[in-house]
Amino acid sequence: MTHTQADENSGALRGGFLRMKARQDNTEKDDVFTFAGGLLMNTLWTRRALLQGMGAATSAIAFSSCSQQLSRNPVGLPAAALAVQPIIDPASLEKPNLTVGYVPVNDCAPFAVAWEKGFFRKYGLNVTLSREASWGNSRDGIIFGRLDASPVVSGAVTNARTGAEGARHFPLCAAMTIHRHGNALTMNRQLWEGGVRPWHSYGGDLDAFGRDLRNFWEKSPIDERVWAVVLSSSIYEYFVRYLVAAVGIDPLKQLRLIITPPPQMVSNTRIGAMQAYMVAEPWNTRAISGNEGIGFTFIQGREIWQGHPDRVLAVRESFIEDYPKTYRSLVKAIIEACQYCGNPANREEVATIISQRSFTGANIKYTRPGIVGNFNYGGFDNQPRITNSAETTLFFDLPSATIPHDHSTFLWQSQSLWLMTQAARWGQIAEFPKNADEIARQAWRTDLYREIAAEMGIQCPAEDYKIEPSTAFIDGKSFDPSDPVGYLNSFEIRANAPQSFFFA
Fold this sequence. Notes:
The structure is a single chain. By secondary structure, the protein is α+β, with helices and mostly antiparallel strands. Helix content is 41%, strand content 15%. It folds into 2 domains: 3-72, no CATH class; 103-108 and 133-494, Periplasmic binding protein-like II (D-Maltodextrin-Binding Protein, domain 2). It has 21 helices and 15 strands. A 5-stranded mixed sheet has the order 9-8-10-7-11, with helices on both faces. Strand 1 (32-35) and strand 2 (39-42) form a beta hairpin. Helix 4 crosses helix 15 (324-342). 51% of the residues are buried. The model is unreliable at 1-70 and 500-504 (pLDDT under 50).
């Protein structure tokens, strides 16, 4: 088991035990709790039984993940895909047989479409899709050679190169974004009853939200302030910390963030193991439409940073060097799949495709809102809060693009600099890298993307860097990639911030 997997499992377990301990303190002896791996625990367990249960749960998680991967990977191309005639001879590729990962959330749409519609086959590839239990598995599968390519959280590539949080240094690369947006922060019923409402209810008033969050937290023990994200290098962690800090609360001191695989988030919230979580669809909708009474959507990620990259297609640097023709075919297949997913005429079909058991396995009523764009924020007052927006998830076209030829699959190296500022801001790295521009250039391969896109007749922005305007961020703070250190130091709330001492 990798370090990341262990962290994820233990995070899920700790979350389950938090609630159990709270119940024990209240002597509620009849409660039974369900958490990771389907293990049932009674509040009267002895320490020995508890430790045995932890071992059983860990084993259950590992077994579940393995069996899930073995039994739920898509097998056998559909007739539509088999009917596609390759435009690239597989024999001309250095490695036509690939194993490509995906995680069962809406993000898997381009991979599911490339499989179902024959885009892999079109570009000479024979792809085996591997269902990954978590985003840590997806990243580590590439690093340790089990996967040839896989989507990863946007911060994973640069964080692997900087060794953030003591992680193993590794030369990951990405040449394209899988999608932008498509994620949200879900809060539990207690936060609603404590006075917190969906972000758009505040009309952009951060202070008002901050007051409501403080009022709720003042009435709840600090050890209950547990929120979850999918991986420490995910933009979701940075968003959660950014949001809380924007209202003047130090998330390093006032909030505990745990790592939880997406499928466990709803159940862990149901049992009271955590107050909130940030994840991709359909797991926010599940808390509203599938598990009534569990939670409501506070905010979509696009309302924290409009235009942010969510997932990127990662490979080892050596893969690009050893198999350049194969890599080009893979990127072309995923670009074409992203174009298909982004076409409004195809979105209903895409929602149906990813609902298959081999992909998300979720009912279409859960997958559809994030794909089609009729997203429901929910609530506990029986009032529908549905927003219709083509920007709920962006796979290719950008309805509000301001830069010529910008599109969702294009990577901006300047955005990787922003991710590095957040890694430094929250102490994942000691300081902002002095060679950050070089890291961005090596990690986010815009040079290769432009070449590949040009072969497909796709134009790209001429530059690699752009200023993120103040209107893009929830706190109205712009990001100028020419001065990332100045940007980082402009935040009063950050790890290793200067301390003021006063002497009588």
